[in-house]
User: What shape does this take?
Amino acid sequence: MTALIAIIVVLVVGMMGVYVSWRAGRLDRLHARLEAARFALDAALLRRSSTALELASSGLLDPATSVLLAEAAHDARSPQSGRELAESDLTRALRAVFSQPDFRALLAGREGAEELLSELESASHQVFLARKFYNDAVAVTQAARQRWLARIFRLAGTAPNPEFFEIDDSLVPAGEAGGRGADLPHLTG
Amino acid sequence: MRIGLVCPYTWEVPGGVREHVSGLAEALMDMGHEVSVIAPADDDADLPPYVVPAGRAVPVPYNGSVARLAFGFLSASRVRRWLKDGDFDVLHVHEPAAPSLSLLACWVADGPIVATLHAAMPRSRALHAAQPILASALEKISGRIAVAEAARSTLVEHLGGDAVLIPNGVHVKRYQKAEPLPGFPGTGGTLGFLGRMDEPRKGLDILLAAFTMMAPQRPGLRLLIAGRGDPDEVLDQVPGPLQDRVVLLGQVSDADRIRMLHSVDVFCAPNTGGESFGYVLVEAMASGAPIVASDLDAFRQVLRGGEAGELFETGSPAGLAEAAGRLLDDPERRATLAAAASDAVREFDWSIVARDVVRVYQAVAPAAGRVAVAL
Assistant: This one.
């Protein structure tokens, strides 16, 4: 009889162990995904600011627009008061530059303009996507970490609690969807 | 002379640079010169006859806040047309490093160009990023003016070269006489503040803390504030029972601004920095208001080292409370300070300042010919 109880106890404990380690594995995978998303977001932001800087110093634009863009891009790369704020400011600067009347027409046919503009547009789209996917990963990871099992067994280990990255990253102002009404407006045609 | 002035910030919102440009334009016209100003503004905006609109300004993040600027090829072509029509002897741009009309004017013009630098720019790294772009346009400037030492050192640090120091001007006469606002200054004493309430560098929180210290001992003391910002945020910084002794005027007209300066017993300038010149101080001096100001370099200079106004340790509410209290209790000292200020402010009158500016034009113009369109 006691042998039977012992066997049951061993079995239950064993199954619990398997379950806990399975959950820990899941949390681990979530953190890995989060890490990858963070990396992609960093890369996208960096690409956007360096392309903006490139456009600013290309000589294609008038100097006032160039200075505006250069300063915003530079601030985004080495923010003085919060990265989210600096990146949002870069978005707003880009929006102001792109929404000049006839912007596209005035640059048409100039050497290298087409390439830089479409590169910048694609970099901006990349930021939008990377941020969305990163915040998705944050939400899932946060939820998983808050479950009682994860909290009791400290399954997340020493990994820091992930935080959402909130910026204004839309190339069109809120409430004014692009021509296609899509998330990725094609401002440059 | 035919003089073209370029204002980089929108004409439709009051601001230091705009006030400077309009004051200078009027003073130059009083001297018999022909003046045209180009500034960002809507085509149907209500403008003085000497201002040419360059189209609507776009709000963009710049230098830590949102500025209303005009940039882009279309703005540049407006400037080009204005230059052609104006046929100027000298082109005078203001704040040429700001990404707006002044920079565009340097870009499209050739010939005698004078530039005035207004702000001290602490964000040297950002400026550094834009420097190669700025350099080619700013190289064309043949005479530079700085309104204060801080603006001059910014220039020397970032762009090399030097500048002539010519202070900001004020129409002293317009400030000398005005009816105080109804019920002011009153018998219990009134402290005054002029400037944006939501700009931390203007130091309103320091004055509010000082007022909170002083008010319990001085039952009649009131605080009169004029400037843009959220009233609730300001009142929240003062204990409940004192709140009805804080009078908020909001943003006021030019005329009420002067009346406000005549309505106070002590004018307070608690700025903590970023102020390259201290225009409000000069306005207060011209109005004959006794002044208590932070001990900033620029303020110390304008107030003649404390002779024309009391200085207190920058950022110290206790220092401000002590200095303001001393003045409130001593009408004789207030009269002495006001008289010294009225005397000191004369060198800031536009008639004097504009004469110095014309000397710069004369030094630059003959050698460089007329203003032409380069691009």
